[in-house]
Structure formats: structure tokens, C-alpha cells
């Protein structure tokens, strides 16, 4: 058994770490100040500039196939890099990426949607959730009915990340009520904002925020169908599946950075004439955090490795998402506790992380949905206890 990174993995991981440390972390104080004024910590043009700089470091399109100018990295390497990105709370991500399901586009759609998204010239969002259908995504109602060569879309999507900024949306609509959502009754459409949908910003406890998208008789030409008619729900599940190992990878970076801050603070802050780190109460919080971080690391890397083996990653990704999201919430909570009143202030990023990581237990499948998937796999005999080593 080999738990070591290869030389290549270590070199790429270290270069990503260097980039984040040298180019992104110095922007943190300014980002915090701006966010306190309810402005984005990093605006779109600054993000693009940083992404171009990262491109010179060799980071462009981590998951993007080489024919589109990307790196097409294995999932393990993508996971390692997302962990590095997680170390900074500046809302940075490497450029050259597009939603995984945009590769189902035909040649004309690739030119119109996929390539400009990879280049950063257009912003996409993905919409399946509705006011009446979140965890129960099969209950979506937004409808598309044919009208000549067009389709007419009516309904509402909600909680859509980037929904207020996006130039176009990949929206899953019901096209055949008889067949039902799981029976091939849904279709994904590529819909430009100019076609008439509107967005309404939703205030959340996090920085930035998702949006509701409202479709009232939005006319979409049939050439904007993504993939096949009837394939919408399947594509939606593919989109969601991707995040299930990347979200906890990101969480790992947050938890490591936050715990590092707690260790430093415990070694310097004095009460009752000695360092707080000399108290067992503080030591236990540090120890529990370290153990949970380490446990999460291996669940996440195994999920990514499962993807690289070409195996079905759903079970291992759900375990990584469930544990990783819980872990980062518990770690950040302890890190705040160790910092006492300072942890609660906006002088430090801890309260920001506290708000940010809470989302990880909710979106792209709640904790409860991950538990449902994990237990169902065992109860129905799809997976063995012990996974691939069983
Ligand atoms: C900031 C943010 C960004 C998001 N971005 C996107 C996006 O880009 N695109 C998109 O389509 N969606 C997005 N979402 C939606 C997100 O995926 C949903 O909010 C999530 O899936 C939960 O759905 P819900 O909010 O309707 O909760 P509900 O499904 O109503 O669940 C409410 C509670 O009941 C629990 N529950 C539900 N059913 C069961 C059950 N059978 N057994 C046990 N417990 C159950 C849930 O776990 C939860 O705790 C985003 C959400 C947020 C908050």
C-alpha cells in the first residue's frame, strides 16, 4: 500500500500552493474590507486577471480536455489543487473551466456556449432546484412545451449560484409530464439571459448569494436543447456528481488553514499566566480537529481515486461529501472557540468561514441525502461494507 504522492502530484500541488500563497492570499485583507461594505471581495475583471496570471504558472482548465486547451488532470490532482484553493477565503478559482455537462453540446453550441465559458468570456449557471423541489429534484415543475421550432419555458428555479451574473443558464425543464422526471420526461436547455428570463438576488448568510430565476413564456429555439430530449435529469445528476468530491476537497483546505491559526493562537495567547494551549480543553479541540481532518483527507482522496479508476464514484463521493462538510463545520467551530472573542470578530476570517462552510452541509445534496444514498447502497447490496478492499 502506498500513501505517498507521486513526484508529479507533489510538484503540481506545490506550485498551486505557491500561487495561492503569493498571488491570492495578499488580497485577503482588501477582500474582507470590501465584503464588509457588501461588495464582492474580488470583482470579475480582477478574477480574470488572476486566472490569466495562473495560466502563466500552467494552471488553466484543470478538468478541461486538452483539445480545448485544458490540463485534463486526474481527479486526485484536481482534488489536491482544490484543497490548495480552499486555503484562501478570497473567492478565487482557476480559469479555463466549464460545467462538465456542457461537453454534451453539439458543435454549434460548443462554439456559442462551451468555448466562451472556458475562455471566461461568458458566465454560466446551472438550474435544477425549484421552490418546491430541492432534495426531491424529481419533483421539478418548470415546463417546456413545444411551439413550432421553439419551446416555451414557464416556471421558477431558485438558489442558483451565479444566477445574478450569468449570461446563460443550463436549465432542466419538464418536457413530458406523462413520462415523469425519472422516465425521460425532462430536457436540458441552454438559455441566454437575452431570451427573457430574469433573476432576483437571494440574501444568504454567506458572501455573495444565489438567485431565483423566473421564466415567463421564455421562447427557446430547439437548437438550444443540450444533449437529447429526455436526458435532462440524467445531465443534472452528472453536474451534481462532480461537486461531491471537489466540495470536500475545498473544505479540507479551509480546515487545515483554520486549524493552523488555532495552533498559533494556542501557542501565544496567555490566560492565568500560561499559554491557553497548555490546557487540556484546548489540546483536545486541536487533537479532535487534526484526526477529523486526516480522516476526511483519505475519504476525499479515495473518492477522487475511485473516479480515476473509472469506477462508479457515487458511494465514495457521498461519504467524502458527508464527512468533509461536517468535519469543516466542526473544525471551524472549535477554531472560533479557541480564539474566544477575537474569533467572533470581523478582524479575522473565522466568522466568515463559519458562515461559508455551513452551506457545504446543504447544497449539492444535503447531509441527509448523502446518508440516504450511502445507506441505500448498503441496504440494496450495491456496495459492500469495506468498499473495494472488502
Ligand atoms: C447558496 C446555495 C447555492 C445553491 N446553488 C445551486 C445551483 O447552482 N443550482 C441548483 O440547481 N441548486 C442550487 N442550490 C440548491 C440546493 O442544492 C438545495 O437547497 C438543496 O439540495 C436542498 O434542497 P432544499 O433547499 O429544497 O431543501 P429540502 O429538500 O426542502 O430539505 C429540507 C430539509 O429536509 C431534509 N430532507 C428532505 N428530504 C428528506 C428525506 N427524504 N429524509 C430525510 N431528510 C430529508 C433535507 O436534508 C433538509 O435538511 C443551492 C442552494 C444554496 C443554499
From TrEMBL:
Ranges for domain Acyl-CoA dehydrogenase/oxidase C-terminal come to 230-378
| Keyword Flavoprotein in annotation | yes
Q: Which cofactor does it need?
A: FAD
Keyword vocabulary terms for this entry: FAD, Flavoprotein, Oxidoreductase
Query: What residues does the Acyl-CoA oxidase/dehydrogenase middle domain cover?
Result: 125-209
Q: Which InterPro entries match?
A: Acyl-CoA_dehydrogenase, Acyl-CoA_Oxase/DH_mid-dom, Acyl-CoA_Oxase/DH_mid-dom_sf, AcylCo_DH-like_C, AcylCo_DH/oxidase_C, AcylCoA_DH/ox_N, AcylCoA_DH/ox_N_sf, AcylCoA_DH/oxidase_NM_dom_sf
Residue ranges constituting the Acyl-CoA dehydrogenase/oxidase N-terminal domain according to the UniProt record: 6-121
Q: Which family does it belong to?
A: Belongs to the acyl-CoA dehydrogenase family.
**Under which name does UniProt file this protein?**
Acyl-CoA/acyl-ACP dehydrogenase
Give the species. Paractinoplanes bogorensis
* Lineage, broadest ranks: Bacteria, Bacillati, Actinomycetota, Actinomycetes, Micromonosporales
